[in-house]
Amino acid sequence: MSDMTDEEIVSLLQNEDGRSVGAHDGLLAEQIEDLNDYYHGKPYGNEVQGKSKFITREVYETVESIMPYLMKIFFSSDKAVIFDPEDEDDIKSSEQETEYVNWVFYRDNPGFKIGYQWIKDGLMNKVGYVKAVRETAEPTVDTYENQTEDQVGMLLSDLGEDFEGNVQLVEQDDGLVTVTVSKVEGRDHTVVSNIPTEEMRISEGDIYIKDARYVAHVGPRTISDIRAMGFEIDDDVSDYGDIGASTVKQDRHDDIYEGFNCSSDDDLGPMRVVNLHEEYMRVDRNGDGIAELWQFFRVGDELLDANEVSEAPFHSWSPIIVPHRHVGSTPADPVMDIQLLKSKVTRNLLDNQELINTGKFGVVDGQVNLDDLISGGNIVRMNFQGAVDSLPTPQLDQSAFQVLGYADSLAERRTGVSERGQGLDPKMFNSNTAASTAELAMSSAEQKNELVARVFAEDGLKSLFLGIHRLGLQHEKPNNKIRTNNGEFVAINPNEWRNRYDMSVTVGIGNGSKNQQMLQMQQIEQTMQSIVAAGGLGTIIMPDNVWNLAMEKTKVSGRRDGNLFFTKPEENTVPEGPSMDEQIKMKEVQVKEMQVAVQAQNMEIKRADLALKERQIELEEELAQLKERIHLDENEFKIAELQLEASQKRAVKVGD
């Protein structure tokens, strides 16, 4: 079989494009357009003149309630994915590759904005797309006119010895010189970008982009942009299509641009806009009986370029996976009918209240000035009393509010989004509500959101970061330096990397407040201290583990300059202690020292005992002397009494 011609290739591409599934046309485009209309609160088309046109916003509330949850999980941290080492020799490389892919997404690209739009595309449009490609640095040309010989010399010396580029010198008529310097500034890098849902196509019946028979990105580009990409194209090339914006794109912009359309039919030449097809199709182009994946760039029936590739650079996700289908669903889908129901009931309530406030009247034809009555003024002119009669307006009962409450509970069951789950229902947190009850309600409400988060992690982020890794493995130069989350600059070496087919996505790494994360760090620190106290330093706990904990606590506190406070250990080892013989000798010395201390203590006890006995003898002698003195005093009293009785010749008592 001979090789396929360009005409045959173009015919196949156009056939696949016409049968492909996408948001550019058909039922999917209509569904996404309706979903976006409900999100933006646009009229339903059933409004009645003079009646309430109020629109509730359940679709908007559902999307915007889930967004902070998902953004907090994935993008409040600088590391969303981690490569698991495949063996002991792979630990260092896997850590380096983990740092690299996260650095490319968060530092070399606006990762937060890309992630925000990617998640919101999925929630609003059923499916979201991003693209990861390698782009080369663009050359720049600087021209310096009217340069003297000295100025030329200074200019050339400023370029330096490592200059790579071209310098052209042209002598002018006046003897001065024009210097033209062309050089490449910047570096080759991986670019991640969002793709509007309506610009993507996938072959009918295929589920995954990596296995699809046909997948394409079709978007408006000017002739000038296409030439800047390196393609040769004529100004009058025909793309055989309406370059006007798709209905989804028009619907997205018509609230800020009246009659939005990206067409530029009035523009001629390089600023003319055409549809550029970047298509990936599996085709047996060389006739060997095996279909290979080819990349084609096409405008209309003109094939601009063709290359055999290993994979398409697109990555997608749908919040709710529908089995055996590429485009899934979104939590906002099942609340569209609820929004319509609540809008109708609320409109009836408002119309009824309006009638109650303004009243409804019966008038005798021709006998009342209707302008006075309609204007609502204080005076109504009539020809006779009773020409105007107020008609009763029945007030809607509580059943209308019960319907609204039922609709809210139905929406909560369908989406998992509720006031309790968002911490907005005060009744769930009053003093009579058990903490376990509130926690159970919030946990139940978060389960569906957690499932959406897991789908995004496994279906979207995982695919994208593996793609970034493959691009780095194929194109990144050795010894390029990147800055890690710990503030270090490390050189990467893709030659040491492995082809990765799996990774763990750290869903929930950003979940929780800073206080909660710091509390977790403190618990880990306490565990480490317990292990070290039990003799685990050098076995379970190494210096690098302690340094990593210190850096992580610094990062959680909101600082990225942990190296100012902590220095990474040069060696991840613990100094060896004394040998066994030395330890025995040290123990013997300690025992002898303890024996000497005990002996000294015993001597002190003996001295204290001797001093105590001596003191006891002294006290006994003092007591004997005191008794003797008392006895002498008593004898003296007796003698005095006898002498006094003898002199007075009567009984006398001396003392008490």
Feature tags:
three-stranded antiparallel β-sheet; alpha+beta; 656 residues; five-stranded antiparallel β-sheet
Explain this structure to me?
This protein is α+β, with helices and mostly antiparallel strands. Among the domains are: 139-184; 335-415, no CATH class; 513-576, no CATH class; 580-656. It contains 15 helices and 17 strands. The strands form six sheets. It has a five-stranded antiparallel beta sheet. Strands 6-2-12 form a three-stranded antiparallel beta sheet. The protein has a three-stranded antiparallel beta sheet with strand order 3-5-4. Residues 423-441 and 507-511 have low confidence and may be disordered.
Describe the structure concisely:
The chain has helices at 6-19, 26-40, 58-75, 91-106, 111-125, 149-159, 223-228, 247-253, 336-358, 370-375, 399-415, 435-475, 514-533, 543-556, 580-648; strands spanning 81-82, 128-135, 139-147, 165-171, 177-184, 189-195, 200-202, 214-222, 273-283, 292-299, 302-308, 314-317, 360-363, 388-391, 481-483, 489-491, 504-505.
State the distance separating the first and last CA atoms. 149 Å
Specify the helix fraction band. 40-55%
Return the average pLDDT rounded to an integer. 82
How many helix segments? Answer: 15
Radius of gyration: 45 Å
| Low-confidence blocks of residues | 423-441, 507-511
Q: What multimeric state do the chains show?
A: single chain
How would you classify the helix and strand content by structural class?
A: alpha+beta
Principal-axis shape equals: flat
Secondary structure tally: strands? 17
State the strand order across the main sheet. 7-8-9-10-11
Largest sheet: 5 strands, antiparallel
Q: Which percent range describes the beta-strand content?
A: 15-25%
